[in-house]
Structure formats: structure tokens, C-alpha cells
Amino acid sequence: MTDNLTLIRESFTLVRDSGEKLTAHFYATLFLHNPEVRAFFPPAMDIQRDRLFQALAGAVRMLDRPEELTSFLRQLGRDHRKYGVQSAHYDAVGSALLATLSKFAGDAWTEAHESAWAQAYGQIASAMSGAAEEEAGRTPASWLAEVVGHEMRTPDVAVLTLRPDAPFPYRAGQYTTVETARWPRVWRPYSIANAPRRDGLLTLHVRAVPAGWVSNALVHHTRVGDVLRLGPGRGSMVLPEHPARRVLCVAGGTGLAPIKALVEDMISRHRPLTLHLFTGARRESDLYDLPGLRQLSAVFPRLLLVPVVSEEIGYPGVLGRLPEVVPAQGQWGEHEVFVSGPDDMVMSMVERLQRLGVPGERLHYELNTTPEALDITTGLLDSPVAPPRRFPGAV
After folding, report:
1. Following DSSP, what letter does each residue of 284-305 receive, concatenated?
2. CATH class of 143-230
3. Which of 64, 131, 150, 204 could anchor a disulfide with 74, C-beta 3.0 to 4.6 Å?
4. 179 Cβ partners below 8 Å, 6+ apart?
């Protein structure tokens, strides 16, 4: 495999500077010879082309981590069921990929390069399609969910309540992917903001962001009675089997969603000795879910809620940035820690807590963006690449 890795990486250096042209040629080749697969993709392909090249780069980087790669690919294959991907589609993608790489590598492309890429892609396709086939028949590929609640909390944040058309299995802290009728075949992930409930309802916290097709549709154009499509519950920021009895949760912005689900789960099932929850925003008006959090604190007095505001001079509560405020508020070395929010906040928070002695196995976090993703069949990126605590963007 070492020789194949060398050949793959060597040949990829020959084409990596042709990103836009390479991906345009790939899709043209794929659609020309397999027009039926065009239906899997969104109408606008501009962003799609960038994602394919990122996926290729991710594939090249991960090929020397076979166990990690296989685990990821199997999950990715299960996720692809919602697109309607069949085994024959993997063959079509593989043929278009090899033809494109050969064209852009030019005279430097050899039979050895062709063989190495074919073998690697065959392993990728086998892992993905095999996992999809194993899961078929056990769970739906996707769910339809009626919007039964839509509440604007700020001018750009909405809380949606959904009723799936069938039982939706997931764990507190996980996310689902969402497709709206306004943007068919465009999926975006959102954390589920409540622990599993007997009535089966799901809550999402959605912030509309600039150029965010799905987020703007959900916040500004979705109404009660509309129907969304959901992908399976995914994600690894969940409670470990034996969590520490003392817990610290840190949430920035709508990163509160998975944290709130975890807090509900802990209150109902684990009842920790202490549960500190720091929730931060730029201004007091951006703390969009304080009433709900205060209700949880009233139910569970050991929940210590600390709202934090970073940019509002005169705010009567705690003022500052979460990565500076939280370390100064306690000794966290023996706590189970969950962190969610903007990437820069999360990484700063994690680094500071590590320096203060929180063991890595007790630090659970998610990132909203990933620089790489390995989805080279449809290019629709909604699953994270390792490390497993990463979480894809939600726009």
C-alpha cells in the first residue's frame, strides 16, 4: 500500500493546481455519460466544484489512516442513502474520476498511477456501499418532518419544532441534516436542541447567515405546516458511558443547541453533582434562549447558569469572552467538559482547558467547519472528517 500511496500523492501534485478546471471537467464527464445522476446535485454547481476538490485532497490525506478512514467511509455510505445513491453510481463516479485525473496529469500519468487510484477508489466505494446495504431495511434513508413550531427569537435566529413522520433515533448532542423544498438537494446539518422526548418532537436553533441558502430559508421563509426532509441523527459529541460527576458546558451563540440537549439528558438521567453552563453572546439581546435555560435551572438547582456577554459595555452580568471568563471561574480538571460554538471560540477554549489540566478524553467539542471532507460520490458534504469531534458547517 505504501507504493500506492506514493503514486497517488505524486499524481495528485500534478493536478492540484487545476482545481476549478479539473472539477468542471469531472462533472461534465460524469453527466455526459451518466445523465441520470444529475438529479442528485443542486441546480447551482459553483460551490459543488470547490467541494469536490476539497474531498479529493481529504481522500489523499487520509489514505494512510486505514482504520479511521474505513470507519468514516462506512458512516458516509450510510448517510448517502438519503440521496438515493446506488452501487452502480459509485462505478460511474470512479470512471469519471480516473478519466479526469488522467487528462490533467498529462504525459506523467502512467498505468501504475491508474492502478493505484483504481484500487484506492474501489476500497472507498466498497466500504461506503457495503455499509449502506447493511443499514437498508433497518432504518429509513430519510424522514419527512412537519414544522409544528416556528419562533423568531432575534431578527436572525429562529427556533423550529419538528414532528418527524416516523420514530427518529438519535442521542442528545447529535445533529441531523435538513433539506427544504425551497432548495432541493441542498442539505445542511443542524444540531438537535433537545434530548429525545416521548412525543418524538425535535427542536432546532437556526441562525440565518449571509449567503446561507438553507439557514435563510429556515429562518425567514419557513412556516408552521411546512414539511422538511431530515437525514439520520449523526455525531459523536454525546455523553460517554461513565461521565464524571462534575460537568462543565460552554456554549457560544447557536452552539447552545447540542449543549442544551446534553443538559436535558444529564438532568433526566445522570443527575451530576454539579453542572456549570456558560452561555455566551455579543449582546444581551443575543442570549436568545435564557428563559428556557432558567426553567432548567429551576428544575435542577445544581445547574449553575452563567450568561456571558462580550461586547455590551454596561451589561450588569458577566462581561468578557468565554475563553477568558470560564478558566477564571473555577477549577475544571476533574470535570467532564462539553464545548460548542464558533470555531475560534471552541479551539481557544479547548486549548486553555487542556493547559489547565483537563484530560483530552474528558474534552468533548465540535467544530462548525471542516477543511476537508471525503464525499467524492455526490460531493454533498454533510459528514465530518476525523477527528470525530468535528462537526460540519451549518449554513
Report:
1. GGG-TTHHHHHHHHHH-TTEEE
2. mainly beta
3. 131
4. 185, 186, 187, 214, 228, 229, 230, 231
Predicted structure pTM score: 0.82
Query: Given a cut of 80, is residue 283 above it in pLDDT?
Result: yes
For the chain, give me the number of helices (H) and strands (E)? 11, 12
- Rounded to 5 degrees, φ, ψ at 247 are -130, 140
Sequence-ordered alpha helix ranges (H) in the chain: 2-15, 19-33, 46-62, 66-79, 87-105, 111-135, 213-220, 256-265, 290-299, 322-328, 343-355
Residue 25 has which C-alpha cell? 471537467
What is the fold of 2-135?
Globin-like (1.10.490)
Grid coordinates representing 219?
429562518
Contact 208/152 with Cβ under 8 angstroms?
A: no
Residue 314's Cβ-count burial label (10 Å; 0-12, 13-18, 19+) is exposed
Grid coordinates belonging to 379: 460531493
Specify the fold of 246-365.
Rossmann fold (3.40.50)
Fill in the DSSP letter of residue 82: G
Q: Considering the chain, what percentage of its residues have pLDDT values greater than 90?
A: 58
Q: Where are the domains of the chain?
A: 2-135, 143-230, 246-365
- Encode pLDDT of 34-75 as tens digits: 998 887 777 666 655 566 666 667 667 777 788 877 887 888
For residue 268, count other CB atoms closer than 10 A to its CB.
13
- Least Cα distance to 11 among 124, 109, 112, 121 occurs for 109
Q: What is the rounded distance in angstroms from the CA atom of residue 82 to the CA atom of residue 97?
A: 23
At 268, give phi and psi (nearest 5°): -80, -30
